[in-house]
ATP-dependent 6-phosphofructokinase (Panicum virgatum), 525 residues
Amino acid sequence: MAQAPSMDYAGSVSSGQKHLGCFRVHTSSRLQCTGYDKKSRTNQLVVRAISVDHPQLDFSNPNWKKQFQEDFGKRFSLPHLRDVIDVEPRPTTFSLKSRTPLENLNGSVQESWNGYVNDDDRVLLKVIKFASPTSAGADCIDPDCSWVEQWVHRAGPRKQIYFEPQYVKAGIVTCGGLCPGLNDVIRQIVVTLEKYGVKNIVGIQHGFRGFFEHHLSEVPLSRHVVQNINLAGGSFLGVSRGGANISDIVDSIQARRLDMLFVLGGNGTHAGANAIHEECRKRKLQVSIVCVPKTIDNDILLMDKTFGFDTAVEAAQRAINSAYIEAHSAFHGIGLVKLMGRSSGFITMHASLSSGQVDICLIPEVPFILDGPNGVLRHLEHLIETKGFALVCVAEGAGQEYLQKSNATDASGNMVLGDIGVHLQQKIKSHFKDIGVHSDVKYIDPTYMLRAVRANASDAILCTVLGQNAVHGAFAGFSGITTGVCNTHNVYLPIPEVIKSTRFVDPNSRMWHRCLTSTGQPDFH
Ligand SMILES: Nc1ncnc2c1ncn2[C@@H]1O[C@H](COP(=O)(O)OP(=O)(O)OP(=O)(O)O)[C@@H](O)[C@H]1O
Ligand SMILES: O=P(O)(O)OC[C@H]1O[C@](O)(CO)[C@@H](O)[C@@H]1O
Ligand SMILES: [Mg+2]
């Protein structure tokens, strides 16, 4: 039997006269809160959409919103070099007019229009006002789902910078697994640095290992070197997992005399980059550490999407369409496709939605049972009976409770998963054999084909924006930040806020409901 998502006690909230006990649901970033119901004399589920960040807020206090916003402002304020060292700003060298910065032809300073981002510019993080915690996808702070503005910092070039470009040495490193668009981001970082006037740009090879494995030398980078690297997939600098000894890395940063480090990676890389930033602060180094989130899994909090995701979804279409053709042409054909997504089902959900051919979409966030009248296998029987074939799309992290746990981890400490695709294939085959119905199961696992391709057009644009904004963030003196897109606008976020947890598909969201509408699948529990 598949288990319901596990829950931990996460504190209590007060709402009016009610005192609610709240539990964190492990597959979501929400809390479920229960309160005593006088009528039934039992604890009842009162609300299931309170943000996990503030279970301690007293909502009966009329000032709670102010308190929340103050705290939010602190959490999302961007760490800056001047917080720990004396650094003076200077006028930017990043010219939007390809002429002397901030000057007209006659030499007078141009005040009216400048095209730079003001340090006080903000972007609204949440844009829906949910009328009730029961609204689809509701993400509430208090049990009444009150509207509270949550502002984050806008990304982009500032008028004032904190480095003298001609003396800057900048490094770029790509960590974790591959992702379409890595080369596009590297390229944009290099050309933007050059636009500021930076001449010393180097690539660190094979992730964090490149900092201390001596045979991995620095790769000099320039517009000329990176000109065409976006035409191929992979990483021009190489990637790796593991090998993040923070103190050694910071020693290496000092020895190399790096002033800026651009770190491209997922959750693990962001944790590493933040630790590097903290160590640099401790040593009072004038070094900016800026991340660009990279993951086909789209599992980074707060962002609309990460680069590479769209391309991976597109690459998955070939596998899904092939499985469909095979299943459709075979007698009682069942196509089964397993797609990447260690703990989040975004690729599988979006690929299923995009193809429109999938009958059953299985993701880690939504538990399912295989056997019994409500199970996946019974529904497959129904599909074979009614339409003669079926197509299943499963995320690699789904249904792990059905598989033997090995407790093995990769070099970065990520859990090595069991193969749900092979398990499902065997279960489906033996089920149809047992009930005496012919079936022809065709299993496709495209694995790395999803991420070893070059970025598609929309990801290439996203990479361009992110790469450029990363450089603007470093020159603006921020460190320990990452850059992303929130509600279509470009922002800087402090790293700890995006790695509080993995981002999951919300089973109460409209997108998951759309997927269910499209597949027509029932609840498998
Ligand atoms: N908590 C952590 N603290 C410091 N460093 C970490 C942490 N977790 C992972 N790292 C380091 O970050 C690098 C990348 O981590 P990981 O292999 O998990 O990839 P990732 O960035 O999460 O990307 P992907 O989406 O491909 O998994 C590795 O060198 C790893 O050692
Ligand atoms: O085999 P590797 O390189 O460790 O990468 C596998 C993992 O990388 C991811 O694509 C994330 O980048 C996961 O979906 C997958 O489990
Ligand atoms: Mg990871």
Residues 1-5 have pLDDT under 50 and may be disordered. The first strand starts at residue 7 and ends at 15.
